[in-house]
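Repro case for the chain-ordering regression, as requested:
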Amino acid sequence: MAFRWKNSLKDRDVTEESIFLNRRQLMGGAAAGLGFVAGSAASAAEEALEPNPWEDITQYNNFYEFGTGKTDPATYAHALTTTPWTVTIDGMVDRPADYAFEDIMKAMTVEERIYRFRCVEAWSMIIPWNGFELADLLDLAGVQDGAKYVRFETLYRPSEMHGQKANWIDWPYVEGLRLDEAMHPLTIMATGIYGRDIPNQNGAPLRLVVPWKYGFKSIKSVVKITLTDEEPLNTWQQLQPREYGFYSNVNPNVDHPRWTQATERVIGGGLFQPRIPTLMFNGYEEEVASLYEGMDLAKFY
Amino acid sequence: MSQSFEHQEGASVSKQTSTRLRLIDRVNIVARAVPVWSLYILLLLPVPWLLYLAQTGGLGREPIKALEHELGEIALQLLIVGLCVTPLRQHLGVNLIKFRRALGLLSFIYVTLHLLVWLILDIGILSQIWADILKRPYITIGMAGFILMLPLAITSNNFSIRKLGPSWRKLHRAVYLIVLLGAVHFIMVKKVWELEPLIYLAVILILLVLRMPRRRKTQPV
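-- result from build under test --
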């Protein structure tokens, strides 16, 4: 079911950029334009938010497959070829298969979602994604009873992703969600930004976006999705279990061991941009708090 | 044949040695001619340059962290160059001792700017600054390094050397601890084990080992 969630963030720059809609994003972009008219029950704070410009979103990235520097992805990601692209969906599904990217796009409804994006490093942006609900993709493969988690893998191709030649990460990059998190209307697979194809440095041709979790959960350039009954061990948890957990929900009350998560800096404000308070679940508390009812979020960080 | 070959080789070795000595002499002559104040001007030029870059997008989309990191790294580099002065003189005969105070003070200036960027531009919230200093080990370590630098910066003048006498030398050995704190601070800032800060630490350890008192080879009879 597409359009299960309506944007409340302000749409100003987006419509202008949407003039440049291309083939892949066309349907979704147009539909999203209509969506904005309907969705406007936003708080005053949300009204003030505007999407970051294209340059912020595409030139300040963490994508260690292309190096650990913030500009490394923008510099080196052009080496990645994204056609052909298939996504293997396997595990506890009715129709396990290698799904061609084109076939997925034909079956999915792309819409625009303007989300806050909060990195675990305490910076943030507002990003106008184009994408489809992950639930729709999972329905395409048919989730079987008993599946409890979804495990994702990024492409492993060191010849094109030179950062993968460093071996301190056990490639490929792995992420995971609980099935109810994966099926949530906010959870999307993004295929575009500002109505254009998603650039390689942002995770082309399709990447997960889970806006209430720290950015590293939103795994890029996905090639494999596995339905399972075991909690997947995600890459950052494997690297530093004391600092990064499975859930990694944005939470101003649970600090990272080495820095505070109470505040964040919005990228793009120059030298004199003050920090702003971080919101519980990155501002999506109303939508997702119920998923974690009764859980100690300091323990399940 | 073989004798004459050996002879030739010996000659070329001594020729190399004399070339090296001439080079060292030349470095020493140049060093004597360069006034210390010119080092201050030269090594402070990165400050306006970095501020210009930060304002014009040259430091990327998030200039505050970039500026903070650049200033901190320069401070650490200057400390390391300062640590090279003594081994260069002892092992190679290169005398740069007159620049050592300037290197130390310049490092202190950069550490101070690094700290100010963090305090004012990066965090800017007093309660959070205090919590960070107490709760975050890498910030605690960085602050400890800065505080240890204060007495060294204050006593980096001829008056203090005369007044303190032999204890001046002892006091300024604190720089060995300070530079180690700086390197550990740098390693801990990174999200993962990264090569660059580990190289800094390795260089520092080598420079410190070079200072260890050498053991006597012969036992007393």
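Ordering looks correct now. The interface with chain A takes residues 54-55, 60-64, 67, 121-125, 128, 131-132, 135-138, 188, 191-194 of chain B (CB under 8 Å).
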